[in-house]
Amino acid sequence: MNVMTTAAVVTGAVVVAASIGTGGTPSASAEPAAAGFGAQLHVTDTDGAGTGGYTVDDLQPSGTNELNVPLTGEVPLAGTLWEAPVAVDAVSGSVIPAMQFFNARTADGQNYRVLEQTLAPDLSVSPLNQGGNSSGSIYFDVTGPAPTEVVYDDGQNRLVWAG
Q: How confident is the model at residue 73 (pLDDT cuts 50, 70, 90)?
């Protein structure tokens, strides 16, 4: 039996939402941990190998509609480029930042997936040992209404940051 636990750490208070399931599939009834931008939220891997602390700040339009990535070149956009600075801390154990699970979400639930080709190499594949951290920005191609929150969704909404 695997256990997925998410926790929000906000000004000293800890809110824990736990879900227990079999075969690594947590219960669908678990509510995501939620906080304002700038707060660190925790998610523990289903295998229990580590707990990552994610902090998302200031979701906003990027100020440019051109995005060039050093290794892949220009990234074609269909809408407006939005970005959010993000930091990942290995709170316990070894953590591989799961940046591919981030979405910007509108008030009515429309999702804009993170532009994976823009992830810094260390924000998606390099393990962080306990106490280690990494930071960078995540980018979204917003083709409709403006997003109001950033969510960590690996098939279930686990973490939510809103302004």
A: low
Structural domain range at position 41: 2-162
pLDDT 10s digits, 103-143: 999 999 999 999 987 776 555 567 889 999 988 889 999 99
Measured in degrees and rounded to the nearest 5, phi and psi for residue 131 equal 90, -15
Domain count of the chain?
A: 1
The two three-digit tokens of residue 117, written as one number = 């080709």
Name the pairing type of β-strands 157-162 and 33-36.
parallel
Put residue 134 in one of left, alpha, beta given phi > 0 → left and psi -120 to 50 → alpha.
beta
Question: Strand pairing of 133-142 and 73-74?
Answer: unpaired
Q: What proportions of the chain, in percent to the nearest 5, are helix, strand and coil?
A: 5, 50, 40
Mapped onto helix, strand or coil, the DSSP state of residue 9 is: strand
**In 3D, which of 119, 125, 128 has the Cα closest to residue 75?**
119
DSSP string, 26-37: --TTPPPEEEET
**What average pLDDT does this structure show over 20-25?**
30
Which CATH number goes with the domain that contains 118?
2.60.40.1240
pTM greater than 0.70: yes
